[in-house]
Amino acid sequence: MADSTASVLRHVLDNGLTVLLKEARTAPVISWWVLYRVGSRNEPVGKTGISHWVEHMLFKGTERFPAGTLDKRIGREGGVWNAQTSFDYTAYFETMPAHRIDLALAIEADRMTNALFDPHEVERERTVIISEREGSENSPTFWLHEATRAAAFRVHPYHHQVIGAMDDLRSMTRDDLYQHYRTYYNPNNAIAVAVGDFDAGHMLERIEAYFGGIPRGPEPPPVLRREPPQRRERAVRVEREGNAAYVYAGYRVPAATAPDWFRLALVDSILAGASAPGGGGIGNRTSRLFRALVETELATGVGGGLYPSVDPYLFNVLATVRDGRTPEEVQAALDEEIERLAAGDVSQQELDKARKQAKALFAYGTERVTGQAFWLAFAENFSDHTWYEHYLDHLAAVTLEDVREVAARYLRRSQRTVGWFIPVRDTAHEGGPA
After folding, report:
1. Class for domain 234-424, per CATH?
2. Model confidence over 127-146: pLDDT tens digits?
3. Of 40, 138, 215, 344, whose CB count within 10 A is highest?
C-alpha cells in the first residue's frame, strides 16, 4: 500500500524494503540512496568498527560487478557515488544522469546480497582501516572525543567511535564481517530513496523489479543497553603530544524524536552557531561563544553541534585554547556564557536571528537532490520522512519560553561530561636513559 504526504511517495515492498520517492524536475539528475539501519550503535564490545569495515567491503566487488570496475563505469556515465557510516546508520548513494539511474539501482540491489568478502580483500582492507585509525590518532581532538564519549556513555554503545578500537580492528575475522553483513543488510532493514527527474509510478516499478525478489531477512537484534541517568558532572583529562589545548563539554540531550530536540537546535544556534548532520555550518561569528571566547582572545576557535540521533545523545561544544591562555580560563568563560543562557538571559531578537541562521543552514543543505535524498533517508531511520519535511515548521513553532525552559533543563553541570586535552612534549625519542 502506498501513501503520499506532501510531495513524497512512501511505499513498503512485500519484503519490507521502505521506498521514498520525490519528483524534482529542476535538472535531469536523480540521487539514489540505500540506507541500512546499522551503525556503531549496533556493535558489541569486541567488534567495534565492524559497520564501517563492512561499508568498505561493499566496494570490493560482487561477481556481477568485480572490484575496481564501478568507479570507471559510474564516472563514464557522468555520475558520482560514495557511502558513509555513522552511529545510527550506514548509507550508500549514487547521483546519476536521470537516464542512467538503472545502473545505480542494479548496483545497490546486487550488493545488498552478493558482496563477496574475499579473504584477501578483507586483509587488505584491515590494513587500510588500521591506517585510517592511525591517521585519526594524529589529531588531538580524536583522543579527546574518544575519551569523553567513553565517559559520557558507560553502558550505551554510543560510547565508542565509529572507526572502532584498535584491538578489535586487529582481531575481527572475515566471518565476523560477513555475519554482520548478513544480519543487517536485508530489505526489511533498509530504506531506499530516490529524488530527481522521474515519474514516481515508473520509478517504483523499476525498484520493484530490482529489489522485489530479494528475500526478507531476519529481524536484526534490538539495541537494549540503555544509558542510565547521569547524576553528576564527569571530567576527563587527556595528556598527549600536541600543539594546542582543547576544552570540550557534552551535555546529555534527548533523541531527535523528542519535542525538545527542535528547541535545543535553537539553543545550539544561539550558543555556537547552527549545525547540521555530518558537520558543516554557515559561520558562527555572531554566536555567543564566539564572542565570549574568540573575540576575547581566549580561544582561536569554538564550535558546537546537536546531532539528530535514534537514542539520547549529546550537545557538544569544543574550544581551541589560544597559545598563552589556559584551559581553566576558557572553561570559566564557557561556563559563564552557558549558565547565563540556562538562567534565562536570552531575548526574542536573539532567538529570531538564531532561527534565521538555522533555517538558512537547512535550506543550504537541502538545495540539491543529493541532500534532499539523504535527509529523507536519514529522517526515516529514526522517525519518519515527515520529520524532515516539517523541519522548518518545527523551528518556527519554538518560542522564547521554550528556549529558556530547555536551556535550564539540559544545560546543567550534572548533565555534562567535560574534557580537557593538555599537550605534552613527546620525550620518548629525547636523549638520556630510557
Report:
1. alpha beta
2. 999 999 999 999 999 999 99
3. 40
